[in-house]
Write a structure and sequence with these properties.
There is one protein chain. It contains no helices and 15 strands. The protein has a single domain, classed as Lipocalin (Beta Barrel). It is mostly beta strands.
């Protein structure tokens, strides 16, 4: 929810914005596939959301108009994190993407060994994210350089949380 509006995606291929007071429809935006796994992230009047049509969308939070969309290689089920003007998100195509939040241009991408359905957490210019290859990754936000990765015994679809001192 942002400013009295609840945003969400649906299996009916739409992203919705509803008034939180009475549930009235403010706007909806149609994609070409389901928008149900990725949750919207709202920053500076922009709704960022992934879809099973392989796109990351940036929509105007006030009216739902398309600002830009970036095509990944497969489903975008991860929920975006936005920091310092960059959208970070994973895709089922095995990549973690960093996309300019204003223009939708690719800044960098990092390939893992499996689908990335985990949602990123960003702390102190480091992105933490899991992959279905069984690893949790720590990457530099500036250029996607691998700082470290940790192997678990199975898929990592959970989204990491970082607690700083």
């Amino acid at each position: 929810m942002a400013n009295g509006v609840v945003y969400f995606g649906s299996f009916d291929h739409y992203v919705y914005a509803l008034n939180t007071r009475d549930g009235t429809l403010l706007w909806h935006y149609q994609t070409s596939d389901t928008v149900s796994w990725s949750s919207p992230t709202v920053v500076n009047g922009v709704v960022y959301i992934g879809s099973d049509d392989h796109y990351i969308y940036a929509l105007n939070a006030n009216n739902g108009s398309l600002l830009w969309r970036y095509q990944a290689g497969y489903w975008v089920d991860s929920t975006s994190a936005v920091a310092n003007g960059v959208v970070y998100v994973g895709s089922d195509d095995h990549y973690i993407y960093a996309v300019n939040a204003s223009t939708g241009t690719l800044i960098w991408c990092y390939q893992t060994g499996g689908a990335v359905e985990s949602s990123p957490t960003i702390v102190n210019e480091v992105i933490y994210i899991g992959s279905n290859d069984g690893y949790v990754y720590a990457l530099k936000t500036s250029d996607g350089t691998l700082l470290w990765h940790y192997q678990t015994g199975g898929w990592v679809q959970s989204s990491p949380t970082v607690v700083t001192p």
